[in-house]
């Protein structure tokens, strides 16, 4: 017992002593840890300095090059920093092609694989998206041709880049991971267009989140102004810098900047001297002093070549009046988009007129950036992405699956840019004007159709010879067979809509007209169209107010009257339902009641498409339903409506079709359209002065097996080859 007590007493004394001196113990431990950190830091820094010294030592560099194949292709490297180089050239006289071959030979000498491509032989969407994860370096050698345009062989390549860079439907990170360098070829004697092709290409790549490995360089054919005496010397100087930069990348050196430099100002992470920064960029001190602007554009370029230019500095004096100008725009007091014709503003003050022209000018710029071709003062046309897809044999839109249209022969247009709603899911981001009545200077139907066809055909012609485009389909696409009057706005607002529809039919063009159910009388007066759509975006008054945000105070009564007017039509009618998760997907029973009111032939149910962030909408990806959720909604709706059945599916548009049972003949669905028969019926109707009527059943056609719901193809035409982009934002335009 005494021994135990002695042991406990000793142990207790030790514990008390440790507790009393605990602060000294803590200090000793902290000092030991700090000393260990300092030693590790010093060791690492010493190794780093030795490595930098060996890189700067010619003898050491030479030895390393011998071991690593000139510093670019280590045979047993654990990580490959540069897999190869791909050179794209756009040449008119052969100079860019010659430079591309010379650069390729120089890259081969570094033991790196290299490929050379003519831009005219490449599909930009395919070839560029592949390079986002390939670890290749892409080099673009492009000449500037007539009026600042790229060479003919590079026209489509550059056109696609421009549209992708300015189209909000294409993700801004589409080319993230692609590393590139640009060398432009031009002649400074043409001051207004000097090297514009190279500058624009560089800017568009940057806008799509591609990363520059060095500053863009420009070769000058004008020997008097060329930095090195000739364009060949300019190229040789740039090539030497490029090869140096390439070798540094092969060694795994970190990129010198974030790729977001503007006007020569590098915002690299970490502190570095001006000399080292210039060295890493491959930019000489002389070049730095010139402060080359990577994004310089002219007002003509940004405004799409318009003649009417508003000086930005002048806006400061009139910002206080912008609210008043917006009211004018909402009331629809326009007469010309982007032009100086303001006959619709007679009697207004000069300030109001100028402000209105400014806003319309902005509208034109927004439309041009979205790929629109504006017609006259209130119409527009655009090339649908499904038209481009079918030209390449990559499948058509849901109308091809549901109704048999040829997507590559479809023109997407509108005779009225204005709309009476401001829907939360509008994929135009409300860049178009809104109004409740027609107050614009009116263009005649003949002018609208003529310019729409010309603009559409000109856009189609740009695809001639483009890699992947099927020649036979390109020939067919020049002859428009269908018109989707759904581009933007409210087509039925156009006072001469019946005359415009008649003109389309006279040209053998079928008509798919979409209305937002706010103009019931116009629906009643509408002459037969191939297929008439009504957008039914919500099933209750409150949800319609929240989703469509209509301008009319009596919007709900107008909505119900429009559905009743639709029920009076004898030709094909369609309800278009857009499902927005957390907004309207739980209103199945109320939708069924509205369907009983309008008695449509078909019901299209589509998940909302997320169109990017916008101050005009609070929608996010969380509001986009999965295809399975859309299918569940459709099946529940079909259960409540026994006279309808699920007929077709277009999985890659997240869309399904309910059809009335009267279109199921002898067990076969007949949702497709006999377009030839429709044109015959329309001609008979017009010749009879309207007394000869006809019904939807008279021009229906059998739906092929691949388009039916439940088919293995899920709505994709087996004659085409489905293209799926890997890990990239989808282009989700369409009518």
TrEMBL record:
Basic and acidic residues biased stretches: 272-289
Ranges where the Flavodoxin-like domain occurs: 85-243
Coiled-coil features, chain-numbered ranges: none
E.C. code: 4.1.3.44
Single GO molecular function: tRNA-4-demethylwyosine synthase activity
Family matches, as Gene3D superfamilies: 3.40.50.360, Aldolase class I
Family recorded in the similarity comment: Belongs to the TYW1 family.
Name recorded for this polypeptide: S-adenosyl-L-methionine-dependent tRNA 4-demethylwyosine synthase TYW1
């Amino acid at each position: 017992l005494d021994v135990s007590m002695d042991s406990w007493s000793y142990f207790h004394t030790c514990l008390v002593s440790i507790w009393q001196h605990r602060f000294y113990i803590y200090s000793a431990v902290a000092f030991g840890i700090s000393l260990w950190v300092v030693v590790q830091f010093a060791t690492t820094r010493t190794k780093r300095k030795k490595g930098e010294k060996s890189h700067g030592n010619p003898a050491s560099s030479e030895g390393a090059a011998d071991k690593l194949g000139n510093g670019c292709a280590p045979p047993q490297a654990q990580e490959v920093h540069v897999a190869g180089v791909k050179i794209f050239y756009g040449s008119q006289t052969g100079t860019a092609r010659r430079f591309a071959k010379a650069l390729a030979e120089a890259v081969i000498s570094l033991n790196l694989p290299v490929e050379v491509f003519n831009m005219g032989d490449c599909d930009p969407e395919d070839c560029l998206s592949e390079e986002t994860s390939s670890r290749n370096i892409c080099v673009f050698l492009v000449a500037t041709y007539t009026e600042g345009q790229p060479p003919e062989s590079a026209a489509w390549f550059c056109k696609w880049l421009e549209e992708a860079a300015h189209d909000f439907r294409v993700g801004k990170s589409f080319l993230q991971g692609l590393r590139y360098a640009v060398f432009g070829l031009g002649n400074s004697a043409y001051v207004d267009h000097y090297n514009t092709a190279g500058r624009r290409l560089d800017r568009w790549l940057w806008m799509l989140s591609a990363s520059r490995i060095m500053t863009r360089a420009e070769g000058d054919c004008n020997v008097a102004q060329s930095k090195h005496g000739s364009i060949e010397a300019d190229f040789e100087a740039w090539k030497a810098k490029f090869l140096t930069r390439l070798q540094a990348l092969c060694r795994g050196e970190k990129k010198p900047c974030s790729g977001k430099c503007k006007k020569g100002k590098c915002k690299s992470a970490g502190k570095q001297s001006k000399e080292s920064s210039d060295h890493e960029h491959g930019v000489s001190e002389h070049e730095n002093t010139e402060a080359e602007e990577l994004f310089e554009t002219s007002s003509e370029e940004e405004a799409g070549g318009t003649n009417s230019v508003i000086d930005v500095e002048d806006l400061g004096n009139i910002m206080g009046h912008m609210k008043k100008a917006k009211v004018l725009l909402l009331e629809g007091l326009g007469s010309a988009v982007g032009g100086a014709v303001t006959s619709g503003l007679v009697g207004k003050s000069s300030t109001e007129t100028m402000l209105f022209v400014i806003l319309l000018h902005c509208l034109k710029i927004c439309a041009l950036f979205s790929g629109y071709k504006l017609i006259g003062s209130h119409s527009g046309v655009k090339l649908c992405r499904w038209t481009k897809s079918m030209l390449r044999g990559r499948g058509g839109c849901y109308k091809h699956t549901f109704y048999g249209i040829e997507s590559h022969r479809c023109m997407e247009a509108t005779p009225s840019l204005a709309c009476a709603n401001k829907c939360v899911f509008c994929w135009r981001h409300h860049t178009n004007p809104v109004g409740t009545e027609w107050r614009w200077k009116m263009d005649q139907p003949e002018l609208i159709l003529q310019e729409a066809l010309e603009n559409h055909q000109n856009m189609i012609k740009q695809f001639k010879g483009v890699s992947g485009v099927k020649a036979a389909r390109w020939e067919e696409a020049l002859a428009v067979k269908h018109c989707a009057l759904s581009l933007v706005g409210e087509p039925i607002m156009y006072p001469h809509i019946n005359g415009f529809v008649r003109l389309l039919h006279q040209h053998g063009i079928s008509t798919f007209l979409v209305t937002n159910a706010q103009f019931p009388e116009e629906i009643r007066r509408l002459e037969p169209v191939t297929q008439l759509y009504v957008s039914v975006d919500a099933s209750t008054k409150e949800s319609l107010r929240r989703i469509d945000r209509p301008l009319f105070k009596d919007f709900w009564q107008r909505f119900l009257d429009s559905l009743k007017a639709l029920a009076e039509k004898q030709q094909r009618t369609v309800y278009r339902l857009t499902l927005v998760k957390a907004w309207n997907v739980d209103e199945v029973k109320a939708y069924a009641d509205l369907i009983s009111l309008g008695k449509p032939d078909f019901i299209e149910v589509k998940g909302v498409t997320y169109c990017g962030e916008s101050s005009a909408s609070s929608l996010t990806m969380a509001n986009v339903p999965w295809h399975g959720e859309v299918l569940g909604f459709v099946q529940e709706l079909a259960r409540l409506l026994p006279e309808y059945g699920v007929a077709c599916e277009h999985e890659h548009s997240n869309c399904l079709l309910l059809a009335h049972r009267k279109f199921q003949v002898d067990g076969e669905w007949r949702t497709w359209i006999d377009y030839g028969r429709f044109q015959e019926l329309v001609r008979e109707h017009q010749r009879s002065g309207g007394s000869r009527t006809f019904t939807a059943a008279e021009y229906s056609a059998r739906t092929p097996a691949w388009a039916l719901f439940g088919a293995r193809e899920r709505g994709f035409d087996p004659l085409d080859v489905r293209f799926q982009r890997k890990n990239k934002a989808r282009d989700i335009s369409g009518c």
